[in-house]
Design goal:
This protein is mainly α. The protein has helices at residues 2-8, 11-41, 61-88, 94-121, 149-169, 177-200, 220-238, 259-276, 287-316, 321-336, 344-367, 376-394, 425-454, 462-467, 469-474, 480-488, 492-496, 502-508; strands at residues 401-403, 406-408. It has three domains: 2-47; 61-454, Ammonium transporter fold, CATH 1.10.3430.10; 462-508, no CATH class. Helices cover 64% and strands 1% of the residues.
Length: 509
């Protein structure tokens, strides 16, 4: 005891003692909060007043199964995105693209369970939801859809994952993996669900604007414009890839390494869109609506691919596969908003316009010296805006809303565009919604990207970029035999050991 008191008289020992004691006190306080707060928040009956349970909700099995099938199709779009981006990129960043797609999906799933779904689809106010965190307190079905809540959650998670993946397309080839995780956390956890709540939330403020409520059936604005605008912010914050020389400087786009997988990836995306658009009915009972949406989706994609192909040919004198793929994707993005309310003819027209706009937007980015290797901004950002506006032009005035037992095509529910005698009201509503979402996304997107840039993790070092992201970040190539065996006659392990000059390696790839 005497020795202990003597030690306590030492000021340094006293500081250590108080620091340890304080740390233990804080730890015990945190533990107490966890032991008491978590059970309370997650519904522990020990902290709840006794109340009669609400009557069980009716879960419509057919609508739930239809929504799940659509969710599976939308989820499979991740394979399409990974193949498309990898094919349009260079060999040395293929593993990086594949891993980003996988990890972004895993991260998005956890975030959307924890709070993304709550922000987006929970009741709250016009700007953000604040219920269903960790899915706590979620009802058996979502609203009046009759769709089981977890099936609806899965469907919307696949949408959220798509938005984050779109962002990565413009940032290929020079983004650090840690930086990718940080901005993905911001996009999936906050930007997409909060801004998306404005249009799709149960009390989103864009649903009540005048002179006409904003409509976005499957996400030309909510998914594609948000993803495309954040991608633009990322491309600008990063700057172009090393060695990227733009047309006005005597250069041109860097050639992708594998048009086979890029084209297959694009077609996989087209296939997945049949979950994206028809699945947004959330109702297998709306048979005519599902068929109309699927047909319109197909025709817009066809028109977009052909218009891009024939628009480019007079300039290049070649039948360009890459621009045709992005052309039909542009048509798909454009039809995503109006697909429920337009006719097949309107789908062809707006899809054809989207294909041309995609090419013109690529030209504009090239002129502005913005490096977008995959074409995320032209396809998703520009054509997402066009598709949203096109509803105000091409809505036929015949269709209203999809419901759990069928379509509601009553006079008060139908949507009518300018070309079908509806005047400019719906066009104004679409323009307001698109402009607000675009502007808000750009503001928060730039803030996010430059905040990540300030951490030093957004872009890899010059040496890492020259070496290639696959080797620098992930320790191996997607095609080790091709990259090292046939070119240098050595293994990737030897290259990582420093037996090959990275300068010649970068030139070879």
């Amino acid at each position: 005891m005497k020795k202990l008191l003597e030690r306590f008289r030492d000021p340094d020992r006293r500081r250590v003692f108080y620091a340890v004691l304080g740390a233990k006190g804080i730890a015990l306080g945190i533990l107490a909060v966890v032991l008491v707060g978590v059970p309370w928040y997650l519904g522990s009956k020990a902290y709840a007043d006794a109340a009669a349970p609400p009557p069980p909700a009716y879960i419509n099995p057919i609508n739930t199964m239809w929504t799940l099938i659509a969710a599976f199709l939308v989820f499979f779009m991740q394979a399409g995105f990974m193949a498309l981006e990898a094919g349009f990129a260079r060999t040395r960043e293929t593993v990086n693209i594949l891993l980003e797609g996988i990890v972004d999906t895993c991260l998005c799933g956890i975030l959307f369970w924890a709070f993304g779904f709550a922000f987006m689809f929970g009741s709250g106010n016009g700007f953000i939801g604040h219920e269903f965190f960790f899915l706590h307190g979620a009802p058996e079905t979502y609203g009046s859809t009759g769709v089981a809540i977890l099936a609806f959650w899965l469907f919307q998670f696949a949408f959220a994952d798509t938005c984050s993946t779109i962002t990565s397309g413009a940032m290929v080839g020079r983004t650090g993996f840690v930086g990718d995780l940080l901005y993905s956390f911001g996009v999936s956890g906050f930007i997409y669900p909060i801004i998306g709540h404005w249009a799709w939330g149960p009390d989103g403020w864009l649903n009540t604007i005048k002179p006409a409520a904003f409509h976005d059936f499957a996400g030309s604005t909510v998914v594609h414009t948000i993803g495309g605008m954040v991608a633009l912010c990322g491309a600008i914050a990063l700057g172009p890839r090393l060695g990227r020389k733009f047309k006005r400087d005597g250069g041109g786009p860097m050639v992708g390494h594998n048009m086979t997988i890029a084209s297959v990836g694009g077609v996989i995306l087209w296939f997945g869109w049949y979950g994206f658009n028809p699945g947004s009915t959330l109702s297998a009972m709306d048979i005519q609506g599902i068929g109309r949406v699927a047909a319109n989706t197909t025709l817009a994609a066809c028109a977009g691919g052909l218009s891009a192909l024939f628009f480019v040919y007079p300039r290049s004198k070649v039948w360009d596969c890459g621009i045709t793929v992005n052309g039909f994707l542009a048509g798909l993005v454009a039809i995503t908003c109006p697909c429920y309310w337009v006719s097949p003819f309107g789908s062809i027209v707006l899809g054809g316009v989207a294909g041309v706009l995609c090419v013109l937007a690529v030209d504009l980015l090239e002129y502005l010296r913005i490096d977008d290797p995959i074409g995320a901004v032209p396809v998703h950002g520009v054509c997402g805006i066009w598709g949203t506006l096109s509803l105000g032009l091409f809505a036929t005035g015949q269709y209203g809303a999809s419901g759990p037992t069928g379509a509601d095509n009553s006079a008060g529910a139908v949507v009518t565009g300018l070309f079908y005698g509806g005047g400019v009201n719906q066009l104004i509503g679409q323009a307001i919604g698109s402009a607000v979402v675009t502007a808000a996304t750009l503001v928060v997107g730039f803030a996010l990207m430059y905040a990540v840039k300030a951490t030093g993790t957004l872009r890899v070092s010059k040496e890492g970029e020259e070496e290639g992201l696959d080797l620098h970040e992930h320790g191996g190539e997607a095609y080790p035999e091709q990259a090292f065996g046939s070119v240098h006659g050595i293994s990737s392990a030897e290259a990582r050991g420093g037996k090959v000059a990275m300068g010649s390696l970068a030139e070879a790839k």
